[in-house]
């Protein structure tokens, strides 16, 4: 059964093409920065947005039919699986990511939900082998069901904690069966609305307990992938505990989880936290915690997670610059945690959206590689900190300088004589010169 009729396999046709269903910049086999673009970018399809989200919002019903012609939920889940692989094949995407509840709808009991997951997991495993597709990461949806109204791992009710643990246990099992290269904890409703009813210390201790249990269990059943926390500052709760990269790093270190977890950075979550996407990536990278990316973009005029397909090439360029500086992806990749707008409600829109996102990141990779080989930015930064490579600066960096010595040095200096320009405008123009040359 073909679900996306009339759309052929999307291919690289280069800048000259006039086809909307072609890649202009994503040439999977082209080598950029020492690896093929396919290996550098590791694109993934998000099951929830692409296969499931129907365009509902606070003010209206769905506008996009994602039943795939089925009337019954499990039949729809089976068809979704086939449609997902057709879509990945046609877009030449190697990976996908899912929440447990995206692939199979929740049943009346936990046991029934698990049986449904087993059935669809077996189907996915077969389709993955037949189509040579891989699982970038799995996760559990511990936020949609009403039982999680006060959170899951941070719920005030121990029964809810237990239910979440059971759900995560199963999600770890199916992720392992499917050879998942990662497992994500996104905070969902792990946060709070008011301190008047909240024991913040206990909630965070419990979240860490759940993560320790999850890591130990996953390793015991043979999961060899990476664990990620995906920071997000707000929405759905007012205060999400995993606010941003720095906050998550502090949490991981406090609870001794920093050896087990890396970060999954989402562009739209970065801007919600008042940071740039590149800032969040840089914090992760410079702390040895860069893992994976949820590739999307927000709208700077809106204060929520709009999860739009990424098209801003400055952002994808600065993102890929961080990725290249981190040495590239290992087990992570670029997961399009993005959905078409409610008004873009046809299957064609989904293809056009992925093509624009993939091309925007392909351009970003090409530009980032050019910026590195151009060398002007890197050498400017290197020179800017030159004073730390000799004399007193070298002693500061070595750790041998003392307060007394620095005081004596400052006294002898009189005052600081040179403070060179940061040349921000020049550097911004260098980026433009490289990008548009
Ligand atoms: C929601 C998150 C979510 C995670 C996976 O804002 O981005 O989709 O990526 O649970
Ligand atoms: Ni995300
Ligand atoms: Ni998000």
In short:
The chain is α/β, with parallel strands linked by helices and 437 residues long. The protein contains 16 helices and 14 strands. One nickel (II) ion binds next to loops.
What does it look like?
This protein is α/β, with parallel strands linked by helices and 437 residues long. Helix content is 47%, strand content 12%. The chain has helices spanning 37-41, 47-52, 73-91, 100-103, 110-131, 158-177, 200-220, 245-254, 267-272, 277-286, 313-325, 347-374, 376-384, 391-398, 403-413, 424-436; strands at 11-12, 22-23, 31-32, 35-36, 43-46, 95-99, 134-139, 182-186, 191-192, 226-230, 239-240, 261-266, 290-294, 334-336. The chain has an 8-stranded parallel beta sheet with strand order 7-6-5-14-13-12-10-8. A hairpin with a 2-residue loop joins β3 (31-32) and β4. α6 (158-177) runs parallel beside α7. It is globular, with a radius of gyration of 24 Å. The model has no long low-confidence stretch (mean pLDDT 98). Bound molecules: D-xylose and nickel (II) ion (2 copies). The site of one nickel (II) ion has 6 residues, from α9.
What is the succession of H and E elements?
Answer: EEEEHEHHEHHEHEEHEEHEHHEHEHHHHH
Count of helical regions? 16
- Rg is 24 Å
Number of strands: 14
**Alpha carbon gap, first and last residue:** 46 Å
Give the CA-based shape. Answer: globular
Instruction: Report strand %.
Output: 5-15%
- Mean pLDDT, as a whole number? 98
Structural class: alpha/beta
In the sheet with the most strands, the strands line up as: 7-6-5-14-13-12-10-8
Bound molecules: D-xylose, nickel (II) ion
Spans where pLDDT lies below 50 across 5 or more residues: none
Indicate the percent of residues in helices: 40-55%
Give the biggest sheet.
8 strands, parallel
């Amino acid at each position: 059964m073909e679900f996306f009729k009339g759309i052929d396999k999307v291919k690289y046709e280069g800048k000259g093409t006039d086809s909307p269903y072609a890649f202009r910049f994503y040439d999977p086999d082209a080598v950029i920065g020492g690896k093929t673009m396919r290996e550098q970018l590791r694109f993934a399809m998000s099951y929830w947005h692409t296969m499931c989200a129907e365009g509902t919002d606070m003010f209206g019903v769905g506008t996009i039919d994602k039943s795939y012609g089925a009337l019954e939920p499990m039949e729809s889940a089976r068809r979704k699986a086939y449609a997902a692989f057709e879509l990945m094949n046609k877009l030449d995407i190697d990976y996908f990511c899912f929440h447990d509840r995206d692939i199979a709808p929740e049943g009346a009991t936990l046991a029934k939900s698990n049986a449904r997951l087993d059935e669809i997991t077996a189907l996915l495993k077969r389709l993955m082998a037949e189509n040579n597709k891989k699982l970038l990461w799995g996760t559990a949806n511990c936020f949609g069901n009403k039982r999680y109204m006060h959170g899951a791992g941070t719920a005030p009710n121990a029964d809810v904690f237990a239910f979440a643990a059971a759900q995560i246990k199963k999600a770890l099992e199916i992720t392992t069966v499917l050879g998942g290269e990662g497992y994500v904890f996104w905070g969902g409703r792990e946060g709070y609305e008011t301190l008047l009813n909240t024991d913040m210390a206990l909630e965070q201790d419990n979240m860490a307990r759940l993560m320790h249990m999850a890591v130990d269990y996953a390793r015991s059943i043979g999961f060899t992938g990476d664990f990620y926390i995906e920071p997000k500052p707000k929405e759905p709760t007012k205060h999400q505990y995993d606010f941003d990269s720095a906050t998550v790093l502090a949490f991981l270190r406090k609870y001794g989880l920093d050896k087990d977890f890396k970060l999954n950075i989402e562009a739209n979550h970065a801007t919600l936290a008042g940071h740039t996407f590149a800032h969040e990536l840089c914090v992760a990278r410079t702390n040895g915690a860069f893992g994976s990316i949820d590739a999307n973009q927000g709208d700077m005029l809106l204060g929520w997670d709009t999860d739009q397909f990424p098209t801003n090439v400055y952002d994808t360029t600065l993102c890929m610059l961080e990725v290249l500086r981190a040495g590239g992806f290992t087990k992570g990749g670029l997961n399009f945690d993005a959905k078409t707008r409610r008004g873009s409600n046809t299957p064609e829109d989904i293809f056009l959206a992925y093509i624009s996102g993939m091309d925007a990141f392909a351009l970003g990779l090409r530009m980032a590689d050019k910026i590195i080989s151009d060398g002007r930015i890197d050498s400017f930064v290197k020179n800017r900190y030159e004073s730390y490579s000799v004399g007193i600066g070298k002693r500061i960096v070595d750790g041998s300088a003392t307060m007394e010595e620095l005081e004596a040095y400052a006294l002898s200096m009189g005052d600081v004589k040179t403070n060179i320009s940061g040349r921000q405008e020049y550097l911004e123009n260098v980026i433009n010169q490289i990008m548009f040359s």
